[in-house]
Amino acid sequence: MARPKKETVDYFPHFVSSGKTLFILEQSYGNDGYAFWFKLLELLGNTDGHYYDCSNVPAWKFLLAKTRVEEEKAIEILNMLAELEAIDRDLWEEKIIWSDNFVNNLSPVYSNRKSDLPEKPVIASSNDSTDEFLPVETEDSSITTEITPQSKVKESKVKESKVKEHDVDLQIKNLRLRYSESQIKIIDEYFDILRWTRKNGKIADSVIVKIYTEWEKFKPDTVIYGLNVYINNPKYHDKRENYCYGIMRNAKDEEVYKGVKGSGANKGNSKGTSKDSGGASEESLRLEKLAKESGLIGEDGSVEPIGEIDF
Q: Taking every annotated instance into account, which residue ranges of this chain make up the domain Lin1244/Lin1753-like N-terminal (predicted)?
């Protein structure tokens, strides 16, 4: 039997001249930021394959215990590391931590071992009947046609993955029910733009579910207003979904009413929105009444000009 390939290290380079990542972390979080980064690198160095999957509770709790920071701060730091490209942003969305720079700095170690560097885990798409994430196979992998306990486990995982895929698709379908047909078109247009904020031009279904779930905090009209602002301003198209959340949170009822009235996105509301005999939703009528009381529109429905909205 071949000797198992070692994909951990006992040390890693700690350069005396720090780069932008460490500087920004220290400026933002003080010693907590400094300590968190190097403890994270220690953890990556000591983990097989040099990636850390913290999608399960025990692994996440261990990371918090090792770095000795509160959960909220840990998430903030990891989000910042992803924005700085110190860790892989797409993998972090799946709660997997991987650092290209860290692994590349280990080249001398693996060169001495006459072994290839570990490769970045690959996230399986929702259409793949495989595990949720897969380390890239190496040349040492052997091929066998024998049915083994491992192959049965693999088959079980494939079936489980298909069940999960079905559940996610159903969840997305249910989350879309609160929107009208015209609103769905705007949502689809938004996602078609948003996907290009990812390196591979794809958004994982699990992330789409998170986005729809976050939108549940807002009324449908507010969601569509925020998406329209994003869609109609190309300068925002490099921003991720958090930017739209901010637009929705800061949107005033008068702004939402004006935006929805202008776009006509509220026509043909979804099943979850009641209508009066004229076809307008209760929410639209409420906003119209509020806008009239505020003097933003006249009694005839004409829209009064308002100042430019600052985002």
A: 11-100
